[in-house]
Amino acid sequence: MTTVTPATGMPQRLPAAVTQSRPLVIGLDVATGASGVAGEGWTDHVRTTASSTHARLQYQLDGLASFYRNAEYVVIEGAAYSKNNNGADSLAGLRWMVRMDLWRRRIPYVVITPTKRITYATGSTVHKDEHGARLRGTALKGLVRTAVEERYGIRTEGVCRYDEADAYVLLAMGLHHLGHPLAEVPAKNARGLAGCDWTGFDKAVAR
Asked: Is residue 207 part of a domain?
C-alpha cells in the first residue's frame, strides 16, 4: 500500500484547479499472482496464492474489478512480447478477461507496453550500472519505483511495491493523455505517450 511523502523537496504539483476536474482513472499492472493497482494519490494490490489457475484468475478479476468498477478510464499494462515467460497463456487470458469486463461495463481502456511505461517513468529504456551493464529485472523496476516517489511523492512498500509503482505510472500516463498530468514531466519522458493506441480514450472524450 502507498505512503505519501511530504511535499518538501518534491517536484511542484499542478494547481488545485486542475486536479479538481480530473476524471477517475485507474492504472492496472495485471498479473496472475500479484497485480498492482493505482488511483490518484494511492496504490494497492490484489494478491493470491491459490494453486488452481482458475481460482487465481477469478480472484484477480474480482479483486481488480472492485477497484475499477466506478472508473471513467482504465490503463492496463500489456505484454512484453520479447519475453517468453512461464504462465504466459494464463496471464494473457487474465488480461483479456479484464478487458472484456471493462468492455461489458463500457469503461474505456488503453493497453500500454512495458517499454512505453518505463520511458514515461525514467526518460529512457536503457539504463546501465557503474560497470556499463544494462539494468534489467528488479534493478530496472527499482528505478521506476524511485521515479514514482520523486515525481509524485508516492512511496510504494511491501512485496508488491514494484507492481504498485508500475500501476501508478500507467495511471499518470492516462491522466496526462487526457490533459490532466499529475506533475510536470520532461519531454524525454513524455515520449512514452507517443505510439500508444489511445483510440478508446479519445472516443470516450468525444462523446
From this structure: no
Find, among 127, 112, 114, 122, the residue nearest to 190 by Cα. Answer: 122
Residue 89 domain boundaries? 2-201
206 domain residue, yes or no: no
The β-bridge partners of 28 are: 37, 76
Single out the residue of 150, 181, 152, 148 nearest to residue 165, CA to CA. Answer: 148
- Judge contact between 192 and 117, C-beta under 8 A: yes
- The per-residue pLDDT for range 80-119, each reduced to its tens digit, is 755 545 457 899 999 999 999 999 999 999 999 999 999 9
Q: What is the pTM of this model?
A: 0.86
| HEC-encoded secondary structure of 146-190 | HHHHHHHCEEECCCCHHHHHHHHHHHHHHHHHCCCCCECCCHHHH
Q: With left for phi above 0 and alpha for psi between -120 and 50, is residue 26 left, alpha or beta?
A: beta
| Alpha-carbon gap, residue 94 to 139, rounded angstroms | 26
- CA 46, CA 35: separation in Å to the nearest integer? 5
33 contacts 159 by C-beta, under 8 angstroms: no
Domain of 22: which CATH number? Answer: 3.30.420.10
Contact of 166 with 36, CB cutoff 8 Å: yes
Please write the tens of the pLDDT for every residue from 139-186. 789 999 999 999 999 999 999 999 999 999 999 999 999 999 999 999
How far apart CA 29 and CA 171 sit, in angstroms, is: 10
* Count of domains forming the chain: 1
